[in-house]
Amino acid sequence: MGVQDLQDHVLVQCDFEIFGQVQGCGFTKHCRDNCLALGIKGWVKNSKQGTIMGKMQGAKGDVGKM
């Protein structure tokens, strides 16, 4: 295992908020489904301000793919 392989497995956490035309397009479900497929833990929800907010935690390489 090389240095890059080890760095990809470091546990990281990311808070995010998505702005723009995100309501009604299925982005929340898309985000949740991709996180589940990658083994990333966390949450995602529609906010009252019309954005999508979330937090994800997982291997650095997997979070980077999101």
TrEMBL record:
SUPFAM superfamilies the record matches: Acylphosphatase/BLUF domain-like
Alphabetized GO MF terms: acylphosphatase activity
UniProt domain Acylphosphatase-like: residue ranges: 13-66
Transmembrane region(s): none
Cross-referenced Pfam families: Acylphosphatase (PF00708)
Domain of life of the organism encoding this protein: Eukaryota
Family: Belongs to the acylphosphatase family.
Protein name in the entry: Acylphosphatase
Native source species: Anopheles sinensis
